[in-house]
Specification:
The longest helix has 23 residues. It is built from nine helices and five strands, in the order H-H-H-H-H-E-E-E-H-E-H-E-H-H. Among the domains are: about 80 residues; about 90 residues, Nucleotidyltransferase, domain 5 (2-Layer Sandwich). It is of the alpha/beta class.
């Protein structure tokens, strides 16, 4: 895959707004937000001020047809209507296109977004797919109040190509439907089973114990063991005790 520009992928995001009253191109709005974040503006108010500060040259460069960047209220209304999963999908495609190698290992991890907590309001929790080999987050999804990390991980894996990949995760992600999704997509998985699933942990230990016992039994009963154990002469054997088998 050839490297994509951020402008390329922003143009692929579906515009949720109606045609009536649409003033600013969506790709230009998202370009302003991305540039503002890269320049250290951490709020929509800061991004709106950033656009006004640089004026017409920046507006034209980003694709605003009227030479004016949107206000805080316009930014807020537009971003609230976006499909977060579609947005994450195009960003994931952009990141993958710029990697030198296709990572084989994908690590699932949950984290709370730094600085997102506001007083008694808990911080935003995310589930991310991280590629250790290239030190890049391939995609991430917010965990909202109506779901959990397990369900968010199912959505996240749906955004990524998993064929010939190995997905790893801690005990939180050791779930049957998640494992089935990875296998169905052509990948493999390595998950940790801990005390939160005692039944599964017991089954795994029993399975390995059965395999070890089966290998031991097979080794003891193998033809090579029987041949070397045979010392007495059998039918057709020599008188000095050597077998002719």
């Amino acid at each position: 895959m050839s490297a994509l520009t951020l402008v390329d992928v922003l143009a692929d995001i579906p515009d949720p707004r109606g045609f009536h009253g649409r003033i600013h191109p969506l790709s230009a709005v998202l370009g302003l937000v991305a540039l503002g974040l890269l320049m250290g503006r951490k709020s929509l108010a800061g991004i709106a001020r950033f656009g006004r500060h640089y004026g017409h040259p920046l507006a034209h460069a980003l694709g605003f047809r009227r030479g004016k960047t949107p206000s805080l209220s316009t930014l807020s209304r537009t971003l609230r209507r976006l499909d977060a999963e579609a947005l994450e999908g195009v960003f994931a495609r952009w990141i993958r296109s710029r990697l030198d190698t296709d990572p084989e290992l994908i690590s699932l991890d949950g984290k709370t977004l730094r600085g997102s907590r506001d007083g008694d309001i808990p911080g935003q929790h995310l589930v991310a797919a991280y590629a250790p080999a290239v030190q890049a987050v391939l995609a991430q999804i917010r965990v909202d109040a109506k779901t959990n990390e397990h369900k968010a991980a199912l959505q996240l894996l749906g955004l990524l190509p998993l064929k010939n990949k190995v997905v790893i995760g801690d005990a939180m992600f050791c779930q049957r439907d998640l494992a089935e999704q990875v296998i169905t997509a052509g990948g493999d998985y390595v998950m940790f089973a801990k005390d939160n699933q005692p039944g599964l942990e017991t089954d795994i230990k029993a399975g390995f114990g059965f395999e070890a016992a089966a290998r031991s039994t097979a080794a003891a009963a193998s033809p090579s063991e029987q041949r070397f154990a045979c010392t007495a002469s059998g039918p057709g054997g020599d008188h000095d005790g050597q077998s002719t088998w």
